[in-house]
Inverse folding.
């Protein structure tokens, strides 16, 4: 009888939360497949957009962080242009992409750059309905400034992406070499 009551209460909570109009959902979001980006179309990927699950073990039963992040990762010596205060999704004018930049701009090749993420911090595993875009401003599409570095050649490039905040998917809109 006790097991039946617990099951009934659990199902009632599940039905109530799935029918209510709140900002959370119970289902874990999808971890999308990686996207290879070949800027110069030489059949060798220059960058990759990959998704990673993030888990920080809880200190108590009621806390902890679990999430998914979509990241842009350079291959080899390739670099990503970033703005110290605004991250990597600050770019609106391709003219800002220059080989030599000064603070607050900096070229980096050592780390992946978070594009989009979703996080839950409660023990019930309720997820927000919307993914967060790692940008200080909202746009219909976003640009990355890129520097492709090979043996004796440096090429400046860019990629334009679209981000779906409902499911976290990233798609390539356009790309090019300056």
């Amino acid at each position: 009888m006790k097991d039946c009551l617990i099951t009934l209460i659990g199902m009632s909570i599940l039905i109530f939360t799935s029918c209510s109009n709140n900002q959370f959902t119970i289902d874990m979001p999808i971890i999308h497949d990686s996207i290879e980006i070949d800027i110069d179309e030489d059949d060798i990927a220059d960058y990759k957009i990959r998704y990673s699950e993030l888990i920080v073990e809880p200190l108590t039963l009621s806390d902890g962080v679990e999430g998914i992040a979509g990241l842009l990762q350079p291959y080899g010596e390739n670099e990503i242009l970033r703005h110290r205060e605004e991250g990597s999704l600050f770019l609106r004018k391709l003219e800002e992409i220059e080989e030599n930049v000064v603070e607050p701009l900096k070229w980096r090749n050592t780390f992946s750059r978070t594009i989009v993420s979703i996080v839950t911090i409660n023990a019930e595993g309720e997820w927000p309905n919307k993914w967060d875009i790692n940008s200080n401003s909202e746009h219909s599409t976003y640009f990355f400034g890129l520097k492709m570095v090979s043996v004796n050649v440096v090429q400046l490039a860019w990629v334009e992406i679209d981000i779906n905040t409902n499911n976290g998917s990233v798609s390539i809109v356009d790309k090019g070499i300056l």
